[in-house]
Amino acid sequence: MDKDSLLEGKRILIVDDEPDILETLEDLLPMCEIVTASSFEQGKELLDSGNFDLAVLDIMGVGGYELLDIAQEKNIPTAMLTAYALSPENVVKSFKKGAAFYIPKEKMVNIATYLTDILEVKRKGKNPWGRWYKRFADYCERKFGAEWKKTDEAFWEKFPFH
């Protein structure tokens, strides 16, 4: 099954305070029904009132982790998207708070692939972080250095998906 068909018609909430990011993500996901918000308040209102298959939340600028808590309550698989909160600590925080994926904005051109990963793995009743690790472990090593997992060694030693 190709990524476009699995995403076809999916209703996705995207919350980011940068209009160009919202526009780019809409362009990258033409097969989906995209609902956008540019603030915490708008994102919260939409999460409270609508049904979504997935959510993509910016961490900085829109209270992404607070929105993640709301998405979790509603069982909406959520990808965290970031440029400024790009750190090993935020990878761990995203995982621990229940996000399904952690995506650097510089890699968002592949958003359809990452969202498909989430849907495919969730459909099998598994955790999408195994896919995340396969896709991003090398990236994290290049970005943060060979010792990137040292910031939370206990977490990574128990990380079951590599």
Q: Which structural class matches the secondary elements?
A: alpha/beta
Mean pLDDT: 93
So what's the overall shape?
globular
Compute the number of helices: 8
| CATH hierarchy: architecture | 3-Layer(aba) Sandwich
Please tell me the total number of domains.
Answer: 1
Radius of gyration: 15 Å
Main CATH class = Alpha Beta
Give me a quick take on this structure.
The chain has 162 residues and is an alpha/beta fold.
Protein model, in words:
- By secondary structure, the protein is an alpha/beta fold.
- It has a single domain (3-158), classed as Response regulator (Rossmann fold, 3-Layer(aba) Sandwich), CATH 3.40.50.
- Helix content is 49%, strand content 15%.
- It contains eight helices and five strands.
- The chain has helices at residues 3-7, 19-28, 40-49, 64-73, 88-96, 111-123, 129-144, 153-158; strands spanning 11-15, 33-37, 54-58, 78-82, 101-104.
- The protein has a five-stranded parallel β-sheet, sandwiched between helices.
- The mean pLDDT is 93.
Summary keywords:
globular, 15% strand, 8 helices, Rossmann fold, five-stranded parallel sheet, alpha/beta, 162 residues
